[in-house]
Design brief:
This protein is mainly α. The chain is about 80% helix and about 0% strand. The chain is extended and about 95 Å long.
């Protein structure tokens, strides 16, 4: 009995250590993920703010960067705030708080989409016309500012395209499997009904 107890305690300690290590790993991984996700919006804000008056050809480009970078932080902030809902004891208040957070998420998403389209118009309409060296020119824009904005938009378009290319076939496949499953279920039900009718007649 003593040996069994010692063995159980040893297994419990090992399990606890593994759980702690796993929790630490998850925390580190989450921290790296959050840091990486925050780095790009931070870069947008910094580059936009630093060059706020350095784009004569389109003064709204640096403003677009600052606003887009700031709004990109909203999902992280809302995710943290949404954790507060678990601390709200009343079910009705909890439900109202959750609905409010989801509504803010939707509004933020719609704003991000509209702002992204606006930024695309401002940036792409000036492509090939920008002057990087002559600061006195009406076509001047800081090179880092313009190219960063241009490639930010381009990368987002590329990633969106890749996502659609992956999502559409998966969605079609899922719908096809679901359709086949429904047809198979209907056929089996019909066959069962026919069998029941046949048995009744017998």
């Amino acid at each position: 009995m003593v040996i069994m107890k010692g063995s159980d305690e040893s297994n419990t300690k090992k399990s606890s250590c593994l759980n702690i290590l796993f929790a630490i790993f998850i925390i580190i991984l989450s921290a790296i993920s959050v840091a990486f996700s925050c780095a790009f919006p931070t870069a947008m804000i910094v580059i936009g703010a630093k060059n706020i008056n350095k784009c004569t050809i389109e003064p709204y480009i640096p403003i677009w960067l600052v606003v887009a970078g700031s709004v990109a932080f909203f999902p992280f902030i809302l995710s943290v705030i949404s954790l507060i809902s678990f601390l709200i004891p009343t079910k009705i208040l909890n439900c109202c708080f959750t609905i409010l957070i989801k509504l803010i998420f939707v509004i933020t998403g719609l704003f991000e989409l509209a702002w992204f389209i606006t930024g695309s118009v401002w940036v792409y309409s000036k492509h090939g016309k920008v002057e990087y060296n002559n600061t006195m020119s009406d076509l001047y824009c800081d090179k880092t500012l313009y190219l960063f904005s241009f490639w930010t938009l381009t990368i987002i378009y590329i990633l969106t395209g890749i996502s659609l290319v992956l999502i559409i076939p998966i969605t079609i496949t899922f719908c096809f499997i679901l359709f086949c499953g429904c047809v198979d279920l209907c056929l089996r039900k019909k066959k069962k009904n026919l069998d029941d009718i046949t048995l009744e007649r017998i």
